[in-house]
């Protein structure tokens, strides 16, 4: 089997926002290793591994931070500011992994908006930042316009 274009990249897809699920599916189709994490105990089957976590639990937060240390991307499809409310804001995440690229699926687009287009834009902008990260070593945050 030939190596896919994005083989070796690691993504944590957190939450069930449609743009998050679609972005994870797009990346998985190109060889990315994805761990899907949801607040609920039942996770969508878009990833090889799925986990339900209570981010208010310090053990769950520590586990997620361990995953962040090894991840290239964190796709945030949780409720707006859920990471921040649980002590997992950008300052904390980037301290754990300077090269992390955080793709935010919110602010949520209107229901009539094209979720696929929003996810495609997030992924493409994330990949451009990944290319820049090879030069600078720093990651960043990408979010759709409000």
Helix count, per DSSP?
A: 5
The separation of the N and C termini measures 42 Å
Name the CATH superfamily assignment.
Crotonobetainyl-coa:carnitine coa-transferase, domain 1
The CATH topology, please?
Answer: Rossmann fold
pLDDT averaged residue by residue: 79
Give the strand tally: 6
* pLDDT < 50 runs, ≥5 residues: 40-47
Q: Rg from C-alpha positions?
A: 14 Å
Quick structural summary:
With 146 residues, the chain is α/β, with parallel strands linked by helices.
Helices and strands in order:
Layout: E1 10-15, H1 18-28, E2 33-38, E3 49-52, H2 58-70, E4 73-77, H3 82-85, H4 90-96, E5 101-104, H5 115-136, E6 140-142
Parallel strand pairs: 1-2, 1-4, 2-3, 4-5, 5-6
Structure description:
- The protein has helices spanning 18-28, 58-70, 82-85, 90-96, 115-136; strands at 10-15, 33-38, 49-52, 73-77, 101-104, 140-142.
- It is of the alpha/beta class and 146 residues long.
- It has a single domain, classed as Crotonobetainyl-coa:carnitine coa-transferase, domain 1 (Rossmann fold, 3-Layer(aba) Sandwich).
- α1 (18-28) links the parallel β1 and β2 (33-38).
Please give a handful of descriptors for the protein shown.
146 residues; globular; 19% strand; alpha/beta; 5 helices
């Amino acid at each position: 089997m030939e190596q896919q274009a994005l083989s070796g990249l690691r993504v944590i897809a957190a939450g069930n926002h449609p743009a998050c699920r679609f972005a994870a599916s797009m990346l998985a189709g190109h060889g990315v290793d994805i761990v899907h994490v949801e607040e609920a105990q039942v996770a969508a089957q878009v990833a090889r591994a799925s986990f339900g976590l209570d981010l208010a639990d310090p053990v769950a937060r520590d586990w997620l931070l361990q995953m962040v240390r090894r991840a290239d991307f964190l796709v945030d499809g949780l409720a707006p500011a859920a990471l921040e409310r649980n002590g997992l804001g950008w300052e904390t995440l980037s301290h754990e992994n300077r090269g992390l690229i955080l793709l935010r699926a919110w602010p949520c687009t209107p229901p009539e908006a094209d979720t696929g287009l929003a996810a495609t834009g997030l992924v493409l902008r994330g990949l451009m930042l990944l290319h820049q990260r090879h030069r600078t070593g720093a990651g960043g945050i990408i979010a759709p316009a409000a």
